[in-house]
Write a structure and sequence with these properties.
The complex is a heterodimer. An 8-stranded mixed beta sheet of chain A has the order 2-5-4-3-8-9-6-7. In chain A, strands 44, 45, 46, 47, 48, 49, 50 and 51 form an 8-stranded mixed beta sheet that branches. In chain A, strands 52, 53, 54, 55, 56, 57, 58 and 59 form an 8-stranded mixed beta sheet that branches. By secondary structure, chain A is mainly β. Helix content of chain A is 14%, strand content 41%. By secondary structure, chain B is an alpha+beta fold. Chain B has a domain of 208 residues. In chain B, 20% of the residues lie in helices and 38% in strands. Chain B is built from 8 helices and 15 strands. Chain B has a 15-stranded antiparallel beta sheet that branches. In chain B, α2 packs across α8 and α3 crosses α5. Classes of the chains: A mainly beta, B alpha+beta.
Chain lengths: 981, 503
């Protein structure tokens, strides 16, 4: 059991969550008396005149009626006087600009500018056109703000509007819809959308849109401020009507309200309080509307009306105007007396301050859509046709309750909600239809509500998992050290903060003190549950997790490692996609079936990745390196005869293999076939290409890196074509320095700088690597050519020499003085192989033997069990070679004494004989290597062959290998010891 | 049963239009740890390779296996006759094995197969004058087959213990080889894959020597159909280039063994040698030229190639010159295409029951009742809609209507793909969370399918990471998705099985 600390913090958080949830639920309860008011707002003194302005008589049939009233109340689109709005009338360009600038809160600026312009108008002009242009200030502001061009402005101010060209800016001409959209976007500050989709996908006539305005039109469409008609036409070039404009203003309220210094609130009127107060000697009636806003806060709106109207004795004007509200209810405008308890209202406050003025109140229609709720029946009052239920959440569909479940702990804390039900309500219990009385208290039901009246009820199988206190989901975050675990919503959506649903469905749980955790059905600690796991949590009555059981949802993908960093790997998956794999201390790394460390991962390694693919990217759970059949076994050079796309192969003429730092003929003469690997890469002069794209491969020189596939067929993994016609250069050298950033490497002895690129085949220990895989000191064979364009020398192939030589293996020779069977043996004294001599030490040396010690005698392999100090195989006093590391003997051989050292290169292997050229023999008298004739040597059955620190078999010697040959003397044609350098 | 027979007839008719059919690779490798070249229509002799370890060294034997199968009621009788040799090692092997496989259905639609010997097994190996004669063979193999609308999946285990007498009749030298293996496979119209991993335990007890060693064998076999486009060389030809469908059979095997080194007298030593090797068997591909649709009216359209392939394969139906890529695909059209893309898993022709021909198709048609009230039996797509319904590709949403002229959203299409593959179980159980940026817009019924589709590479989303789940599919989009689905069936799914060896 694991004890989880710091649980207290979480408990507190959970408490807060539950309290705030309770606040939401208070919505359904009468307002508590002592509750603090979040804010108090007031009516407007000019409510009466605003109402008179918007009391249009010609909008009853307009579909945009509410919007016309609302935009009128905001003083954005005004009427024509005489209670006329003329909803179908086209908005002229100047009107449109005025409307849009008012929408942006610029009315005052425009009026000031207009007065200034009028004042500056000289008398001649005034004579020419007696009336001032009412829109001059707006147009000037539009020109200054870049809505219209200076030329448009000049056109607009031109007194002879009728003489303007057709494409001129005639201010009284109808505004185009795209123009209106464009201006709207500019004024309300929408970012233009350059990757348009909505306009192209949704509208048939998008091409009529002014191209410059398209990004703005798209922005307006995306924000649902404008839309086309139902037939798929946007009608961008068409005129815009006044009702359309009004609707657009309301659609853009999200952007417009801040510009006007206004804020929108929504809520339900919970109560209306009336009281009479005395203010400055007048008795006034103060009406207070208590409104429960949708975020749970309690708000108040106050109006104040004098009880006795005192009027100015001359004008009859009220001395104290009514402080009232402008209210729209079901298409009727009026004052606060239109508001009733229970109304859902939307209201707009000017000056978003605690004592802001309410500019406009709209009663939202109470005709709700049908709702479906999952609930538990608390009580049934059949006399009053009311049921009390504990309501869990709403459903999209009455029959689809899967994917939602209720947290056990919340259930009991839920308050009851009352609903009326239809007199003849039918209840479906799954088998038959009954009456409401057939529902027992405590039953779980899905209720269908129309206007909050229950019209249908169905008993649901829901309680089966609601009562068990079990929740399930996918882990979003697990933090046992902080004591909590967070799940995604059961429907797979991310929790949306702020919505009442998200509170009910809150998905963070704290761990109880003793929590039992299973992962993959094995008992483990809580920290083993990972992001992305599917889990079940068992909660106690406090809602804390007492037990958890999860399984991982991993994906397994094969790929190759592109680069290794301390906390991540860059990899290319088998399907060609690339990704970054995050690794941490929990990532298991395996190489060839054994646990490995991260620094053992090499660039170019092939591996199988067990990963979780989450929103935050890939997380590696296990990396299992397996280079079987994947490593580069050879590099070839040849001339392409033809490339066959269908058979996916190249036919190559003059095929040669890179070995021992030079090109060596392959066995098959004439043409050879090289099959291309499924994931092959082809580069032409450093540029990636494919066999289908590249038509003229024929006649070109290619370098080919191959791997050995199943059945030992070679398959080309990289084919690289050097610059055409460039002469090939071959270097065997050490790397002095490497600059992967520029793709340059310098060679030590040749004192030369070479370039490499994507197409360069760079092989290190069989792994294809990028230039980053080269390091100073690497012994390399480089095949290069000159880039005829830049004159630079470019490497086609860089092959890092594989390990060779004796390394840390030591070779001894001595006479056996004693043997402890199956355990150890001792040499009386011994000689140890140094580079070109045997160093004698007159001390005994003891070696351990084990089951893995090999023994070779004159007949070949001898079982180590026969290595005895008695009987017919008595080995005492035999002189043997011992190869081993430390005191561990890996090989014991009775091969003949040899102390003559030669060097050379294998050029042929035949019938157990090696044919060696470039022979140099060591003369111990002068300590020099002396050139000699070609030789052929055999190896006795008990001969020792060493490569890269291990003993190998005769078959593993390759043509081109450089050898050190140790024989009895220069005439001897049997080499007791061969070391491959 | 009547319905099923009717369906079979319809399907046989469907398949007959396309004679190149992939048949079950199931058990064509035998159960001995070797690989065969796989089924090619009409062949009983398969090329075969196997590695044996009886001498303490891996020896590759090559030759043939002859497989004969008959189906009688709920039992398959099969005979595998092996003739193998390795002249270089002077080795030969003769083996005859008779199996009886009983088939038991379960309520959830899965089939249980149980395989045992029906007659005494026979095997002799001669290597360099030494004979290994099979004395005793305990064998058991069991697997389940899970049939999904378009794919049959299977998984099972094999275990066996062979005892050989080494040397002449009187010899007491015994060699025991024990095999434990797991195998997995899938079988569908566009390809089959089978892979297996076995571990061997080899033990020799003789008068002169005794030793033990282990080996492991992994192998996989695939048959797949690939599509290749060929341009026409001459230009004055009435149709554009077209597609070639090729069927490839490939088996690969890899073995690793750890066996003792033998001394110069042939007696084992304590030194163990680890060796590994691999084998490969491929058939020469069978190819078929597909009809060339005339899509000149949409030359250069993004969907030109996709539509070309789909018309060639009969997945898209109708007059190709009337194919309008930007038209919205209807539910009935999409379902028809799905039935043609996610075709029924073909039966092994060697196991076909001999059925008496039904008197006439006409009578059958009279018996037909449409599962949907808004699809009449005369509808041109009726057979495929009925097949889709019977195979569980589409479901009746309770209303009894199908909504043939409704549109298909991206989410609908993905749900149908995953249902066809039967891979719903790859999801995380509850409603999944996908990494698409519009994850929350994926309808809850489709989220698990989208998760799986994303996991297996069937959907990728657009460049900005959006899936656009609610988008109605145009014919162009549908063609691209259907073709991607076919590509997955032909390669992606099969690669997962061969990936068990090495991805």
């Amino acid at each position: 059991m694991k004890t989880i600390g710091r649980k207290g913090i979480l408990k507190k958080t959970l408490f807060i969550i539950i309290t705030s949830m309770a606040a939401v639920l208070l919505l359904y309860l009468p307002a508590a008396k002592a509750e603090r008011l979040e804010a108090t707002y007031y009516g407007m003194d000019d409510a009466q005149s605003v109402l008179e302005n918007i009391d249009y008589t010609d909008i009853a049939d307009s579909w945009a009626r509410d919007s016309i009233v609302q935009s009128g109340a905001f003083d954005i689109i005004k009427g024509y006087g005489e209670k006329r709005f003329e909803p179908k009338r086209h908005l002229s360009k100047e009107e449109a600009i005025a409307v849009i600038l008012r929408m942006g809160g610029r009315e005052e600026d425009a009026q000031r500018l207009g007065e200034a312009l009028e004042a500056a108008r000289n008398n001649d002009e005034k004579l020419e056109s007696a009336r001032p242009i009412w829109s001059a200030g707006y147009l000037r502001l539009a020109a200054d703000g870049g809505l219209i061009s200076p030329m448009d402005f000049a056109d607009a101010m031109n007194p002879s509007q009728s003489f303007l060209e057709d494409d001129g800016f005639i201010r009284t001409a109808p505004a185009r819809r795209d123009e209106f959209a464009y201006w709207t976007a500019l004024v309300i500050g929408l970012q233009p959308v350059y990757g348009q989709q909505k306009i192209f996908n949704s509208f048939l006539d998008w091409e009529y849109t002014d191209p410059i305005k398209i990004p703005y039109v798209e922005a307006v469409l995306k924000n649902n401020i404008m839309n086309g008609n139902a037939n798929g036409y946007l009608n961008p070039g068409g005129p815009i009507t006044r009702e359309q404009a009004a609707q657009i203003i309301c659609n853009a309220k999200k952007q417009v309200l801040p510009l006007l210094g206004m804020e929108e609130k929504r809520g339900v009127i919970e109560n209306v309080l009336l009281e009479n107060v005395m203010t400055s000697g007048y008795e006034e009636t103060v009406k207070t509307f208590l409104i429960r806003s949708y975020d749970g806060a309690l708000l108040a709106i106050k109006t104040q009306v004098p009880v006795m109207q005192a009027a100015n004795e001359q004008s009859g004007e009220s001395l104290r105007p009514d402080n009232e509200l402008v209210v729209l209810r079901n298409g009727i405008t009026g004052k606060s007396n239109l508001l009733k308890i229970g109304d859902r209202v939307e209201f707009f406050i000017k000056n978003n301050a605690p004592d802001g003025r309410v500019r406009f109140v709209k009663v939202l229609p109470n005709i709700e859509d049908t709702r479906y709720i999952a609930a538990r029946i608390s009580s049934i009052d059949s006399d009053n046709k009311v049921v009390k239920v504990k309501q869990f959440f709403e459903l999209d569909h009455p029959d689809l309750i899967s994917g939602k479940s209720l947290q056990y702990n919340i259930l009991e804390k839920l308050p009851d909600t009352s609903y009326a039900y239809l007199e003849n309500l039918k209840v479906d219990n799954g088998k038959s239809i009954g009456s409401i009385e057939s529902i027992g208290e405590g039953s779980f039901v899905v209720l269908t509500l129309n206007n909050d009246i229950i019209t249908r009820a169905r008993i649901s199988a829901f309680p089966l998992y609601a009562d068990t206190g079990i929740v399930r989901g996918i882990v979003e975050d697990n933090n046992p050290s902080m004591g909590y675990i967070t799940l995604y919503n059961e429907d797979g959506k991310k929790p949306l903060p702020g919505s009442p649903d998200s509170l009910l469905m809150y998905r963070t749980f704290s761990y109880a003190n003793n929590v039992e955790v299973f992962r993959d059905h094995k008992k483990t600690g809580a920290e083993m549950l990972q992001t992305g796991d599917s889990v079940y949590l068992k909660l106690d009555s406090d809602g804390n997790v007492v037990s958890a059981s999860g399984v991982p949802n991993y994906n397994v993908k094969g790929g190759v490692i592109l680069s290794v960093a301390p906390t991540f790997l860059a990899v290319e998956f088998g399907d060609g996609t690339q990704g970054i794999l995050n690794i941490d201390e929990n990532t298991v790394i395996e190489a060839n079936g054994m646990i490995a460390k991260q620094d053992e991962l090499l660039e170019g390694d092939h591996a199988i990745f067990t990963i979780y693919e989450g929103v935050k990217g890939y997380e590696a759970k296990k990396i299992s390196v397996s280079n079987d059949n994947k490593l580069v076994t050879s590099v070839y050079r040849g001339t392409v005869q033809k490339a066959e796309q269908f058979s996916n192969r190249l036919i190559i003429y003059d095929l040669e293999k890179l070995q021992g730092g030079r090109w060596i003929n392959t066995t098959q003469k004439g043409l050879n076939e090289i099959k291309l690997d499924k994931n092959n890469k082809l580069y032409v002069e450093g540029i990636e290409s494919s066999i289908g794209d590249t038509v003229d491969l024929a006649g070109r020189t290619v370098y080919i890196a191959v791997r050995k596939d199943y059945g030992d067929t070679e398959k080309a993994v990289v084919v690289s074509m050097p610059f055409k016609g460039s002469k090939e250069l071959l270097y065997t050298d050490n790397i002095l320095s490497n600059l992967p950033a520029t793709g340059n490497v310098s060679l030590l002895t040749n004192d030369l700088e070479l370039g490499y690129n994507k197409g360069t085949i760079i092989v290190n220990e069989g792994r294809l690597v990028t230039g980053r895989g080269l390091a100073p000191g690497h012994e390399v064979t480089v095949i290069a050519g000159r880039n005829y364009k830049t004159g630079e020398i470019q490497a086609g192939v860089i092959s890092v020499s594989e390990g060779s030589g004796i390394k840390d293996l030591e070779l001894f020779r001595g006479r056996i003085s004693s043997i402890v069977e199956n355990s150890s043996f001792t040499l009386e004294s011994f000689s140890k192989l140094k580079k070109t001599s045997w160093d004698y030490a007159n001390t005994p040396k003891t070696f351990d033997i084990s089951a893995s010690t090999r023994m070779l005698d004159e007949n070949g392999v001898m079982g180590i069990r026969n290595f005895k100090d008695y009987g017919e195989n008595n080995m005492i006093d035999r002189t043997v070679y011992v190869a081993g590391k430390g005191t561990e003997a890996s090989l014991i051989s009775t091969a003949p004494y040899a102390a003559h050292f030669s060097m050379g290169t294998v050029w042929e292997k035949k019938e157990g004989e090696l044919f060696v050229r470039d022979v140099r023999s060591y003369e111990s008298s002068s300590h020099t290597w002396k050139k000699g004739d070609d030789i052929s040597v055999g190896i006795p059955v008990n001969g020792i062959i060493i490569k890269n620190g291990s003993t190998i078999a005769f078959e593993d010697i390759g043509i081109g290998d450089e050898l050190i040959i140790i024989r009895k003397d220069i005439q001897d044609n049997k080499a007791s010891i061969i070391i491959i350098e | 049963m009547k319905k099923i027979i009717a369906l079979l007839i319809i399907l046989t008719a469907l398949i007959a239009t396309n004679p190149l059919v992939v048949f079950a690779g199931l058990s064509d490798n035998g159960f001995e740890g070797g690989i065969s070249s796989g089924y090619v229509t009409g062949e009983e002799n398969f090329e075969y390779k196997e590695v044996i370890f009886v001498t303490g060294r891996p020896i590759v034997l090559e030759g043939t296996v002859i497989i004969k199968k008959t189906l009688r009621d709920d039992e398959v009788r099969s005979t595998y006759t092996y003739n193998l040799e390795n002249p270089g090692e002077n080795a030969t092997l003769r083996r005859v094995l008779n199996y009886s496989t009983s088939l038991t259905g379960s309520d959830n639609g899965q089939t249980l197969e149980q395989t045992l010997f029906s007659r005494d097994p026979f095997e002799t190996i001669e290597i360099d004058g030494v004979s290994y004669v099979l004395q005793d063979y305990d064998f058991s193999r069991s697997n389940i087959i899970d049939s999904k609308p378009a794919v049959d999946y299977f998984a099972g285990n094999t275990s066996g213990k062979k005892t050989y007498r080494v040397g002449n009749n009187a010899s007491d030298n015994r060699l025991i080889v024990e095999i434990e293996g797991n195998f997995f496979g899938c079988k569908q119209y566009w390809g089959t894959a089978e892979s297996a991993a076995c571990s061997l335990w080899i033990q020799y007890t003789g008068s002169d020597d005794s030793w033990g060693g282990t080996a492991s064998i992994k192998f996989s076999s695939t048959t797949s159909k690939s599509m290749e486009y060929v341009d026409n060389m001459p230009k004055q030809i009435s149709f554009n280039g077209g597609y070639i469908e090729r069927q490839h059979n490939r088996s690969i095997m890899k073995y690793d063994c750890k066996l003792p080194e033998f001394d110069s007298d042939g007696i084992s030593t304590d030194h163990m040698i680890e060796k590994s090797g691999s084998l490969n068997l491929e058939t020469f591909p069978v190819q078929k030229r597909l009809p060339v649709p005339d899509l000149s009216h949409i030359r250069g359209h993004w969907a030109e190639r996709d539509a070309g392939i789909l018309f060639s394969l009969g997945v898209l139906h109708g007059e190709e010159t009337l194919f309008e890529p930007e038209q919205v695909m209807t539910r009935v059209e999409f379902t028809n295409s799905m039935v043609m893309a996610a075709r029924e898993v073909p039966q092994d022709p060697r196991l076909e029951k001999r059925k008496s021909r039904n008197p006439s198709r006409r009578n059958l048609e009279q018996d037909r009742i449409s599962p949907f009230k808004d699809i009449s039996v005369d509808h041109i797509f009726f057979p495929n809609i009925e097949s889709a319904y019977n195979r569980g590709l589409i479901k009746d949403m309770g209303s009894g209507s199908f909504g043939p002229d409704e549109t298909v959203t991206m989410s609908d299409a993905i749900t149908m793909f995953i249902r066809a593959l039967g891979l719903e179980n790859m999801g995380p159980g509850t409603y999944a969370v996908t990494t698409f940026r519009d994850n929350d817009k994926i309808p809850s019924y489709a989220r698990n399918s989208v998760y799986v589709a994303q996991k297996i590479g069937l959907v990728k989303g657009d460049a900005r990471g959006y899936l656009r789940p609610g988008e109605n599919l145009t014919k162009a989009r549908a063609a691209a998705m259907l073709n991607r689905f076919l590509r997955y069936m032909r390669t992606g799914m099969l690669d997962d099985y061969t990936g068990i060896m090495n991805y």
